[in-house]
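LOG
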Amino acid sequence: MRVFLLANLLITVSGCAYRTLLQPGPSPPSVLRTVQPGTSVNVLDYGADPKGEKDCAAAFEAAFRAALPHRRVHVRLPPGRFLLRRAAQFEIRGNTRWTGVHFEGAGQNVTQLVVDNDEGGLFFKGPTTNRLTVELSGLSLVARRNGAGSAVRFDKANPGVKHNRQFMVRNVEVRGETFAQGFFRRGFDVRNAWFPYFSNVTVGDRYGPSIPEDAPKMEFAFYLLDCYNPKFLTCHVWNGRCGLYYGTTREDSGPEDGTISNCYFVGNERCIVVQLKRRTRRWEEPALHITDCHINYRDRGIVFEGLREATISLCLFYCTDRKGSPFFKGGPSRNFTPVDVDLVFAGDILITHNIFTEPSNPKRIAVRIGKDSGNILVAGNQFNIEGTAIRNESPRESFSSGNFFRGRRNFSQGLVKYADLTGTLVKKDLN
């Protein structure tokens, strides 16, 4: 460990060398460094204020630019509260070299980025590059105001080297300043990423009795557009209009594959929406696997549009729309039909070993097989709800096998097991 004191600036170097040049500049001070390969930069050295009093966007951008020439960019965010009065933008151009970027905090709620603007927090963009990998870890993004833009955005050129355009997030929290104050319009807005990966990521909207039902809400916790094979592991989404949207703007070929495992979507109007194809003349995209998740929704639990060879298994579904529930003494129900699993345009789908439960709007449908879907297997599930278990609207054959329709605490009075509108549902169930 070597410690240098130069012009009242203390620089600590461990295992590497810095050549330091001091230049006059506006407050906060701007420090220009020539950083050797294999090192990292600390935002404090570029004027960032860890007390949350001064805007740190320019300091974050300066730290990023200092390491960028080497295309191995490690930006350290130490403990503290860092105020962003505008979005901090990090841009990379050109494909002469591959670029890896890691923004590393000291831990959730140890490093806090306090966003007090309508643009959002961090924006990684590569309009002319497809060789870009970004990793974000160990921090909290905190919205000081309601509707504070997107907490994190990632966007780059679409064509080209697929395995070098990745976006990864680990141990990150996105929330308001308090449980009842502050939210982002979007948690993560990710476009054109290959293998986007989220692990132990929490995104929350406001909650509590003081929030009116018609109050503005977070639009999307996760918004993925033209991304290939996303992974969500042990993530949590609280409230908001849509927990996870996975879609495409392309009609010729779109993104495919993906895994959502051991995640909680609680209090969302729509939990998971997948829209990969708009035209039924084209093949659906293959392979999405959803397993071991909590799906707590108001309008839609899971929506598949343009998907085949997918599975939904070992999930718990329950609906927050309880108006008109016979279990809760009836009354007028909402003029809406909640659906746990809505197969708008889907084929070769396995829906197995899930629990559909709790009282709700009696119009609720657990599984809807739309007219453009087919070859669906619904097997080994428990249906303990008020409403309809399986509604089939497709002329194509589908199958229901080994399901049962009751519970130890029984909410299934008046349950309609099947609404088979076309007579193409093959049924062989337990009761």
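LOG (cont.) second protein
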Amino acid sequence: MENLLISEDTNSLPPKNLSFSGHQTFPFRYTWLKKGVDAVMDNQHIFTDEDAPVTLGVGKNMVSSIRHWCITAGLIRKNKNTSNHRSEFAVTDEGQIIFAADTGKDQYLENPATLWWLHWRIATNMESAATWSWAFNFLNYPEFTRDSLSNDLIDWIKQQENIRKQPSENTIKQDISCFIRTYCLSQSPQITIIEDTFDCPLVELDLIREVQVKQGENRYQFNLDPKPSLTDSMFALAITEFWNNYYPNANTLSFSKIMYSKLSPGQVFKLDENALVMYLEKLEAVTDGTMTYDDTAGLKQISRYEKHEKLDRLELLKGVYEKSTI
């Protein structure tokens, strides 16, 4: 049953250019994002240098993967204009807030808030992480297999007239394998697979579980249970980004949009309605009255006032760490 609403503000999805590669089949590992940010701070051309594998301490394909994940998570960006025709990168404000040497709030991914932020950024980045975004926002079923996910995604891509380049079936399958290993700790007895999967820190979020291994077919399920490590301040940051990206001129936002719209907190964090209400009820305290939740007369919505312009997302990101405990 269709349970995702497409609002008038998000019906232009997906973008024309969707990427189903770039990660070289590797989910990111605990040290990779920090390595990428540090390397770019030291050398803006690091990802085109021949000695990048030595500098980063990884293989050549992993260098490309580190670059992909740092860009996808919004930690670094590629500069558009370079005078010497070499790819040039810069660390974003978010990358500096989290990973900068000496001042970074969570340089070694010890705070679950960082993992939720990384997940939020990846699962809402349709252009660079198409399978991740599609699975969390467009998939209509809580349970799936690799084959069903592949077939449904391929069918969906074929229906999108504005997608410029259709990926091959093999590319889709490799992307899905990387997607599952990003979130799910395999129950397979093969040690190498477990080690590869565990290397990705987003496994800690417990968003996807392997629920059955039968006749060679692994089944997976989105975890819709409460998310105790998802803090109120992290949720407020996600709401702010969602609101600013898709409803910048609106002073109110309905419960249904927050719960069911593509790229919404309800979908990306896999919350049920009760959990979402709990987060919405705390928005006023978390945002110092900038946002309020109202469910009177059966009309569930949040409102924000003129002073919402003072609610800077970078300050909210810093606040996530000030208000959280490890």
